[in-house]
Write a sequence for this structure.
């Protein structure tokens, strides 16, 4: 039997699950006015210098990369109301702020949280003082420049490319915008293509052969075994017969004259065609 392998490209968005919240209530709660070191005999042991209940996870960034600010002190905090949030945008998408002239509208600045009196910018569903909407790393003004949002901060394209953008496995350049994840690597959507027809896969199935990806059509044309009787591929799960130097579907291995099925039966051949015993000497084949 022949084994066929199928692969599927996948788009995702990874989200970090919130840490579980634990609460502890003593069995015999004392009045709140009494300090814990009076009511709890083991208090000193719980908070001994050699003990800790805090776990720290280190994230390694490239040398010189900006350190993302804590969520509570972010220079560009997320909106509190979910109804006011902008639609979700794919990671690495290049955006541009919109300018609005001074008017009777006085929005709050997303950076300093103060009322904006005068011209302002709108980006990521928030309003900003033009002089306070800057790259979180190099401090370049983004009022008239494209920017990319990353970890609750905004960066100019140059800084994002240097510190955050993944590298394409094919062209080895930084990926700005939509990223494709396949074969445990990252690709530009236009770089992950069929090795034969060079067409991008998108989110369609692909097959691997000799380390190269192929679309369904080209893989069948180039590598699949075809039935000598019907010229269609012999696919996984199909019953087939090896005879006369060719592969046949079990239902396609028939007498060329009367079309009786010859599976498991004695047969003859003429001009590379199978014949039953009755038509073994047929002239018109």
């Amino acid at each position: 039997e022949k084994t066929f392998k199928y692969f599927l490209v996948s788009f995702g968005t990874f989200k970090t699950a919130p840490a579980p919240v634990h609460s502890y209530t003593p069995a015999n709660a004392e009045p709140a006015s009494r300090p814990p070191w009076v009511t709890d005999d083991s208090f000193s042991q719980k908070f001994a210098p050699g003990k800790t209940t805090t776990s720290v996870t280190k994230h390694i960034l490239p040398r010189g990369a900006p350190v993302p600010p804590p969520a509570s002190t972010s220079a560009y905090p997320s909106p509190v109301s979910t109804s006011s949030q902008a639609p979700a945008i794919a990671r690495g998408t290049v955006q541009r702020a919109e300018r609005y002239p001074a008017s009777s509208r006085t929005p709050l600045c997303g950076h300093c949280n103060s009322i904006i009196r005068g011209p302002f910018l709108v980006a990521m569903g928030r309003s900003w003082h033009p002089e306070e909407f800057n790259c979180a790393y190099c401090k370049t003004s983004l009022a008239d420049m494209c920017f990319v949002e990353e970890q609750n901060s905004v960066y100019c394209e140059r800084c994002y490319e240097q510190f955050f953008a993944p590298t394409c496995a094919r062209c080895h350049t930084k990926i700005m915008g939509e990223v494709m994840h396949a074969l445990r690597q990252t690709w530009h959507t236009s770089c992950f293509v069929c090795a034969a027809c060079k067409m991008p896969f998108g989110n369609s199935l692909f097959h691997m052969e000799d380390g190269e990806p192929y679309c369904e059509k080209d893989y069948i044309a180039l590598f699949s075994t075809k039935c000598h009787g019907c010229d269609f591929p012999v696919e996984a799960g199909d019953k087939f017969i090896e005879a006369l130097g060719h592969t046949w579907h079990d239902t396609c291995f028939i007498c060329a004259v009367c079309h009786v099925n010859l599976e498991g039966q004695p047969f003859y051949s003429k001009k590379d065609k199978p014949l039953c015993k009755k038509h073994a000497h047929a002239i018109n084949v």
In short: The mean pLDDT is 74. Residues 216-223 form the longest helix (8 residues).
